[in-house]
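> example.struct
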């Protein structure tokens, strides 16, 4: 997806990706592609699975303690978390997609926009 990409499926909620989330996804995909193309494809499918789930169940992510209304949805088979907030319009705004070993940036403590 491109920067600021939006995805809407039927009556499901919209999912918006921040430019940082898009960059995170590209970086992770590139790292997995260097290992094996099939692994990169599996990573992309896992991300798509999380996005699809969030369109249906936007509250399904686990609240992140100490970060207000920030939630994390984990990828299956990969050590990554999708960090997101719900906007005032009920959209899912994905802020970052980070490896479990990465620190959560303080910027995610800011209130959601939109």
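> example.seq
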């Amino acid at each position: 997806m491109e920067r600021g990409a939006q995805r809407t499926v039927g009556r499901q909620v919209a999912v918006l990706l921040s430019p940082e989330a898009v960059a995170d996804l590209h970086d992770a995909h590139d790292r997995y592609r260097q290992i094996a193309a099939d692994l990169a494809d599996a990573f992309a499918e896992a991300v798509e699975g999380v996005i699809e789930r969030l369109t249906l169940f936007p509250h399904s992510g686990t609240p992140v303690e100490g970060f207000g209304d920030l939630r994390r949805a984990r990828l299956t088979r990969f050590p990554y978390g999708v960090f997101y907030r719900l906007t005032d319009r009920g959209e899912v705004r994905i802020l970052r997609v980070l490896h479990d070993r990465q620190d959560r940036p303080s910027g995610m403590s800011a209130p959601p926009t939109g």
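> remarks
The first strand starts at residue 6 and ends at 7.
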